[in-house]
Amino acid sequence: MSSMPTIKSREIKIVQDIPISKTLKFWEGLKEGKVYATKCKKCGKVYFPPSADCPECLSSEMDWIELSSEAEIETFTHVVVRPTTFQQYKPYTVAIGKLKEGVRVLAWLTGFKLSQISVGMKVKLVAKISPEGYATYEFVPP
User: Fold this and answer.
1) Per residue in 89-134, pLDDT tens?
2) What ranges in 43-140 are assigned the alpha helix state H?
3) Is the preceding peptide bond at 19 cis, omega within 30 degrees of 0?
4) What pLDDT band is residue 83 in, cutting at 50, 70 and 90?
5) For residue 1, what pLDDT is reported?
């Protein structure tokens, strides 16, 4: 068994300013404790994360809707080997939950022991401000 010779690259750190003018209501909503999605006025499809334009019918006529907090876990994974940018965190669990509006949300799942988590369990989607000051959202016990 032979291995190919390698060298390590230097660490690359990229920080960019991401324009949010078309999704500003989403970010402002998180700071107010609300989670918003967009709904196409033309075809009625709901998008999360919010979309400024409808990928389905290409309309730019979108309404903002506040999502309910009720979700059901469809799948989850416990992350032990964390990416470099998450090394400061203890191992964590992320899950995909389906909300009653039909959208699926990927978020951290907190407030549960790993042994308590199962597919089909009910959770609540909540907006929060991270310890670093970022507006975000997560699943918590109902």
Assistant:
1) 899 999 999 999 999 999 999 999 999 999 999 999 999 998 888 8
2) none
3) no
4) confident
5) 56
- What does the alpha-carbon distance between residue 110 and residue 94 come to, in Å, rounded to a whole number? 9
Position 70: which residue type?
E
DSSP 56: T
- CA terminus-to-terminus distance, the chain: 53
Ordered by where they begin, the domains of the chain are 20-66 (no CATH), 68-142 (2.40.50.840)
DSSP annotation of 91:
P
Backbone phi and psi for residue 27, each to the nearest 5 degrees, phi listed first: -70, -40
pLDDT of 3 above 90: no
Q: Tell me the HSE value of 140 on the side-chain side, using a 13 A CA sphere.
A: 8
